Amino acid sequence: MINLVNVAPFIFLCMWSSGAFFVKTGLDSSSVWSFLTLRSLGAFILILLIYIFLKIKKEANRREHSLSRKNVMVLCLNGLFLQILYQSFYFLSIQHNLSVGLVALVLGLQPLIIPIFSGERIKINGVLFLLLAFSGLFIALFGSKDFSSFSWSGLTFAICAVLAITVGSACQKKIEVNPLESALVQNALASIVFILVVYFNGWNVTWSLSFVISLLWMITVVSTGALLLLFYMIRQGSVNKVSSLFYFVPIVTMIFDYLIFKTPMPSMTIFGSLMILISVLLYRRC
């Protein structure tokens, strides 16, 4: 029988990394806020249907499944960081002409700074492995020449994004609620907030087949499947080691780009990717 704990990182990376293609397509036909609204609302409805179908019973494990007022408040606070601030700052950094490569490099700081917020200690050799992985990320992205555009406002939003997902991930570890219920509450909050933002900023969507496909993929695969796996992995292990997986996200994205669109992978990118692979594997074992 396949152990979910063992295969979850691989499945998560494939799901999460695929989002880069569909976000770009989606934003070609809508504004940032309209796209985020549809994504959050769609994910909320889908998770709600799954929740009802599975008929999760609170009495089966009161501690794990209890959605008390206190739990809801904690989940809403965490949803503010993971589902609202992180998503908003991430999209705004790209909208303000910061290249995707530079955004990925800034987000690569997360495994290095998350111990400050999570309270988990890392051995000296673990820090060295993370620094090697970060160096590999820089080499891989530099090799792909994905540092084409820069702006200080975009960099500011990217820094805010990495701080938001870092704080959110650290807080998620302390939440003793079923991942499905956690995702349900957080997406409900995100839907309400983004609907209000769209109300004041205006609605901008051009419906097309490509946009619908992009939206459905983001809802089902990234915002539901990958998110639930992320919450599951955080509950099962060290939040620091889960965060180290994000070093692979731009690499897996480039692999998809190579396999699907035949985009060449320079030797420098391959070398940096191997550095990340070896460093993260050693880090997760230390």
From TrEMBL:
Transmembrane segments: 32-54, 74-92, 98-117, 124-144, 150-171, 183-201, 207-232, 244-261, 267-283
Keywords from the named record: Membrane, Transmembrane, Transmembrane helix
InterPro entries: AA-Vitamin_Transporters, EamA_dom, EmrE-like
Heme among keywords: no
Membrane topology type: Multi-pass membrane protein
Subcellular location: Membrane
Residue stretches making up the EamA domain: 13-141, 153-283
Family designation: Belongs to the EamA transporter family.
Protein name listed in UniProt: DMT family transporter
Species of provenance: Celerinatantimonas yamalensis
Lineage of source species: Bacteria, Pseudomonadati, Pseudomonadota, Gammaproteobacteria, Celerinatantimonadaceae
